[in-house]
Each structure stands twice: as structure tokens, then as C-alpha cells.
Amino acid sequence: MASFGAKLQTNAAEIERALEVLLAPGPLSGPGAPPARLVAAMRHGTLNGGKRLRPFLLRETAALCGTARELSLAAGVAVELVHCYSLIHDDLPAMDDDDLRRGRPTVHKAFDEATAILAGDALLTLAFGHMGEHGAADPALRARLVVELAAGAGSGGMVGGQMRDIEGETTRLDETGIARMQAMKTGALIRAAIRMGAILGGAGTDALGHLTAYAEAAGRAFQLADDLLDVTASPDAVGKATGKDAALGKQTLVARLGIDAARRHLGDIVHDAITALTPFGPEADTLREAARYFATRES
Amino acid sequence: MASFGAKLQTNAAEIERALEVLLAPGPLSGPGAPPARLVAAMRHGTLNGGKRLRPFLLRETAALCGTARELSLAAGVAVELVHCYSLIHDDLPAMDDDDLRRGRPTVHKAFDEATAILAGDALLTLAFGHMGEHGAADPALRARLVVELAAGAGSGGMVGGQMRDIEGETTRLDETGIARMQAMKTGALIRAAIRMGAILGGAGTDALGHLTAYAEAAGRAFQLADDLLDVTASPDAVGKATGKDAALGKQTLVARLGIDAARRHLGDIVHDAITALTPFGPEADTLREAARYFATRES
Fold first, then answer.
1. CDD domains annotated for this entry (chains A, B) (predicted)?
2. Which domain holds residue B44?
3. Which residues of A touch B157 (CB under 8 A)?
4. What is the per-residue pLDDT across B188-219, written as a single tens digit (0 to 9) for each?
5. What is the rounded distance in angstroms from the CA atom of residue A197 to the CA atom of residue A202?
6. Which of A23, A188, A292, B1 is most solvent-facing, going by the fewest CB within 10 Å?
7. A142: chain B residues, CB-CB within 8 Å
8. What global pTM score does this model have?
9. ipTM of model
10. Positive or negative, the Cα torsion across A74, B163, A150, B74?
């Protein structure tokens, strides 16, 4: 039985390879050929050795529900494309204005702002096209996955959370407001990834409910751990400027609760995530380890 | 039998109403509620009395293939959402830097740049979610429509064309290069709209081929007429600054051919579009009128 770390690495390598094929530089001319500069920017923002956690969660959940991992690869790629587009747009000067991402120049630094906006738009579009064409063998399931992905990524999910986060730079949020913003900004796509895995695996209503509860707790753990890393880790470890959230006046639960209380709260959330998986027995151990991993990762 | 103008107005009113329902301001709180400012920006960029030509083409094509207009409304809304998002992003300072759109402030002027980027992202996401959920009664057809919409909107279509247009500001394109850029930037979404109507209407391979030929000619006519308007119309008539393409050094066939030759070329393209519809007989008269309308519109 492969270790958790080995499973994570296998998934990351498979997603990276699939993204490489999908975003292979095409012929430089011909009608309808994606422009070389646009493809290069899409690749820069995507093929970066990421941990591919959202596809991992999607595929592990699908596997738990009985779907072989090779059948969930395309859906995993689609959710990762959405994640990568969101990072490109979040890094833009008008948004978080970040120069570095995983230790490399952000897309608008390596190219320019217009190219970064368009590369993000193209990746988001590609995510839905890929999901609609390859996300599942059954076309009805593909349509359902598209709807779930859009719900997680859109105005009531990730993009809405990013808007709330920006508004939070000038408006003080209470703990509920911070939790809601984070549940949308980070949580919604993680939740959608896990639910897409469950849908792909044919989960019934009860199983989908348990997995959604797991997903929501796992998403909270992921974000809280991220906020803790922002104040405790070195820039080298996380590959971007740390302490930046505080400098931007961004509101986090860590800033509100203090580091020690935030760490205790993180332990409680991980416990919630693990408990939500009880009905699945030991088969769900990889997802349990994923929740623990979120809370203890160092980058 | 309603006149062409009346049909255009009826469709525009139906699309406007459907968009109004879809983008209705929701409750201002609650987990997963889209932030009010984001919804306001999405509405500003969408509910603007547009002519809704792409939904019109989609729905007329579906009707020609035997699908009642009420069954193509949602797919029409989805393609219009993509068009509206593209205008918001194209107007951004890093892109075309436009202050006015249809006589009103552009979204980044009425709100701010970050909000405009996110509103565009949210509308694009909503387009795919809406298509995946409501685009057709048959879920397999919905998945196919999602794929067609993504192909028209993505790196090999509209976004790729926008990239080529920006590159053209600094690199001289030949006539073929301009035609290719425009076929992607403007043509690809018009082509996708007409093909989605055909797919929704269950068109066979031959009919889809004829309608695609019509779509490609109609798209060229639309763009050439737009370029002619940019150099000949008053700002009041088109609701935005005219002569702007020339000022930006944008390359158009009008700039290359001269106004008179461009007008003659436009006549030829409209003829091509009309001829492509021959197999459909008089049933296709509304689509023929649409091609003529593109070439003669004054705004």
C-alpha cells in the first residue's frame, strides 16, 4: 500500500502530464490556432509543479465511490485549470499585486497584464470545455459536473469569495464574515472538487451529504493552515512573500484569534473532517490523511 | 408575419428579461450569497439594452432546425453572458482601455478594475453553469453545447483572437493575418452561436456544414461592417469613441483596403452568407435578413 505522500506525488505527476498534453504548443499558424504567446502564458500559469490538491481530492473521492483513477483524470484536470486561472487573476496588479508565485514570476510579470487576463480567461474556458467533453464517460454526468464546477467557481463560490476578500481590505469583518469569505474564496472549489468526485463515482444522497460535510471542514482546515503559514513560515518555504496578508490589511482568523487559539481551532476542524468520514470506514483513510496533511503541511 | 426588426426586438426583450431574472440581486448575506457589489457589476455589464445578436442567431438557427424558441432561450442567454464578459475584460485599462460602452461608463469605470475582472470571470463561469443546467432538455446535448461554447470562446476562438488583436498593435499583419485575427476575435463566437442553434435543433452533418458556412460569412460581414462604422459613424450613433481603432494602430481590412473597396467586399461576403443558406429555402429568410442587417446597421 502506497504511503500518502507517494499517492499525492503520483496524482501530481499524472495531472502535470495531462496538462502538458492539453496545453502542448500547437502549430503557430492556421485559422483557429491559439496564439503562441497566449499558450506560453497558459503554460506558465499551469505547468509549475503544483501539488494538485484539488484533483487529488476529486480523484480520491471518486475512488472511494468506486471509480477507477484513470476515469477521473480529466475531471481532475478541469478543476486544476480553474484553480490555476484563479491564481493568475488574483495575482494581477488590480487584485493582490503579487510578483512571485511558487518562487517564479507571476504571469503578468513574465508576460504582461493583458496576456495574463486573457490566459486566465482561456484556462477557465478550457476547464469547462474539457469537463464537457471528457469529464465522464456518461454525457449526462458531464453536464452535471460542469454545473457543479461552475457553482464552486462562480459568484456564489470562489469569485464571490475573492470579491468579499477585497472588500474586507477596507471593511472590518467579524469572525462570521471572515469564515464566510473563506468558505467561498478557498472552500467552494475544494468542496466542488470533492463533490465532483462523489458525483463521478455515482454517490447517493447520503454519501454525497457526508462527503460534502468532509469537504467543508477540509476546506476550512486548508485555509486556516494557509493563514497560519502566512504568519509563521519563511518566504523560502512557501515560495512567495509571507506576512503579506497582514501588510494588505487582509482579515484572517489567525489575526483575530491569535496563533495559539488558531492552532487549537485547526485541530478541531480536522477532527470534524475526519469524523464526517465515519460511515465510509477504513476505505476513507486516504481522505482522512488528506485532512491531516492540510493542517500540517509546511508550504 | 413579424418584420425582421420586430423579431430582433422580441428576442432582445426575452433575453433581457431572462438575464434580469438570472442576475436578480439576491439576499445580501448568508453563506454562498454572491456579494452585492459583484452582482451589481455583473448587472451593469449585462443589462444594458444590447441588441442580443448572438442569441438571436442561435435561436433563429434552432427554429430553422425545428426547435421552438422558448427551448433555445437558456442557450441564448449563455452565449450572451460570454459576449458580455468579453466586453468587460476587453474594456479594461490593460486591454483596450475604454471608458464608455453603449454610452455608459464601462464596468471598471463605474466600479473598479478588480471588480470588473471578477465580474467578467463570474459571468463566464455563469455562462457555462447555465448552459450545463438549462441549455437543452437532453443532458447529452447540454454537454455538447458546453463544448461548442468553450471552443468558440477559448484560446482557439474569441480569446485567442483578442490576443492576436493586441499583438497586432505592434506587429504588422497582412490581409490573411487580419482576416484570421477577426475570424477568431469576433467570428468564433458568432459561429459557435449559430452552430449551437443547429446542434440544439438536431441538425444533421450536412445542415450543420451549410449553417457553419453561413456563420463564417456572417461573422466576417459583422466585423467588416463594425470596422466601417468605426471610421464613418458619429460617436453618438455607436455609443463609444469612434476612430479609436485607428488611434490604437489596430489593423483592420478597412484601413488596408480603403472604405470603398471594403464596402464592395462587404457586399460579396453578405452574398456568400445568403448563398450558403440555399438548401434551406425560404424558411431561412430570417437568417438571410440577419446577414443583410449586419452589413447595413448604423450602430
1. Trans_IPPS_HT (cd00685)
2. 4-296
3. 32
4. 999 999 999 999 999 999 999 999 999 999 99
5. 9
6. B1
7. 143, 146
8. 0.95
9. 0.95
10. negative
